[in-house]
């Protein structure tokens, strides 16, 4: 018989597991609880029963079956849905994690496994002294990118122990708030803007003593080039489908690490996910600039992004003789001697530049008068049977469109054709050595893309027309303040390509201790002999030999940004109504549908024309509506559709940033744009 008191009782047994390191102490504790007991009360009862004197403040309950944290301590067990069969683990929220940085260096640090990944990445970046953490995220290396390594490893000897930088004692890693002084707009420079080395007088701001100085110095310096053998063992994508595998493992920014099956001491990749590098400043961003440079370098070496032979040699020259050698020489220097910054003088100098501002002339003229370009250019229209029709016309570029006429005299009449460049793809087709300056335009039409080639006569003409085309594709005119800087950027890149062989460079390869195979992708190693590569890299180096270390890295990043494929993240998708798979390229301002077999763009959709997007979580389908009643829908085959959804929302979030705003992030807006409701 059951007594009436027992029958009416609401108490029930709950078995709790405690994740502690004390030997000889039980890890499982049964407690009698009621449904109206709140989570905080359950913690208190458990700690009293454990009877171990220690700091339990970092502990919380992890619900194993539902893969979620019980962080709202004021909620009752009934409200949480906890019943007698629930497996709750009382464990630490901060755990050790290994992160492989873009420079292939591994750091070990303590990270919050209970915070959303967006917040965890923000804390990690404060630890590593990287501003603008919203540009980065965490990536799980997909199995497809590890297969090549595993096959190689079967026959290889045990690899040497990896050199891991241990940052587990830094303030943020210990669960303490980071020093906000790092992100203050009025702060004095942390890094020497020329050498990129830390200014020792400010190192104490973000941690104590020499450990922090040494750690940040390592992260701000380029790594020595890897061997050709090591490069050959790494995963190199051969097709667009292979490139899609690289982007399959991005973690969900709106969920915690534990919710995504990340365990303590696991290794993840910390990478720049969004290719919009905002407000790069050598005074504060030595680590950030170096890590962006390293991500670009590896993308080029592993052929994750395509470039021409001419461009590959420029990248090799910037790596080989500039970044690598200057980094090695700066490592041997005493940073306290070279990088001591007079803080007052630096602050005054910075203030003076800020107050003076830029060139104020012609501001009213820019507002009232939209410039135009008019010139003789060659028009190349691809014909069937691989023949091309090349003819010279008089071209006029006004607003965001190009009109062309039979000659200059007929420019007052009706044009032969008018090309609207808004939303088009602009691809450079340049070979400086062969004096070829071409612009390939892929203009959206009803049934796909209309292909048009323009040929310019010289570098100056090409730079002006190319810059105008790039701006017009984004819906901007030449009156925009970014037009002249774009022209200068294109000219400087062409100048780097424009080298001539000199006698000194020709004779130098014999005397130079250099492994050119370390600086170019394997494809070019097979194409040229070692001496040929060395000579050609030395030729290219003539134009970059006068740069400082930071300038060389920034120039490398700019050259990377100039490549046609820059900033595109690929995914294999199936469009609604289609019977075959396509590749979707996601960029900072557009989506591109690409033919998987040929690699040719089929259609481009600009974010600026997007009205709304949503996800049908049941069938995992992304649907997007654009202006002019254009709508698309697709399912993602190479990754979870949440990743593409987050990419679109993330890029829109980043477009709202402004230098005038405080540097604190609007986390709520980010999650509103990227979170979704599953």
Characterise this structure:
The structure is a single chain. The protein is α+β, with helices and mostly antiparallel strands. Among the domains are: 11-92, Phosphatidylinositol 3-kinase Catalytic Subunit, Chain A, domain 1 (Ubiquitin-like (UB roll), Roll); 372-478, Pleckstrin-homology domain (PH domain)/Phosphotyrosine-binding domain (PTB) (PH-domain like), CATH 2.30.29; 569-675, Pleckstrin-homology domain (PH domain)/Phosphotyrosine-binding domain (PTB) (PH-domain like, Roll), CATH 2.30.29. It is 33% helix and 23% strand. It has 22 helices and 24 strands. A seven-stranded antiparallel beta sheet has the order 14-13-12-11-17-16-15, covered by helices on one side. The radius of gyration is 29 Å and the shape is globular.
List keywords for this structure.
single chain; 678 residues; alpha+beta; Ubiquitin-like (UB roll); PH-domain like; seven-stranded antiparallel sheet; 23% strand; FERM1 protein; integrin binding; PH_Kindlin/fermitin; Band_41_domain; cell adhesion
Helical content stands at 25-40%
CATH class of the domain at 372-478: Mainly Beta
Q: How far apart are the termini?
A: 48 Å
Strand content: 15-25%
Topology-level CATH name of the domain at 372-478? PH-domain like
CATH architecture of the domain at 372-478: Roll
Task: Give the overall average pLDDT.
Answer: 81
Low-confidence stretches: 149-161, 177-187, 200-210, 332-368, 501-511
Number of strands: 24
CATH superfamily of the domain at 372-478: Pleckstrin-homology domain (PH domain)/Phosphotyrosine-binding domain (PTB)
Radius of gyration: 29 Å
Describe the main β-sheet briefly: 7 strands, antiparallel
Pfam families: FERM_M, Kindlin_2_N
Domain PH: 378-474
GO molecular function: integrin binding
Family: Belongs to the kindlin family.
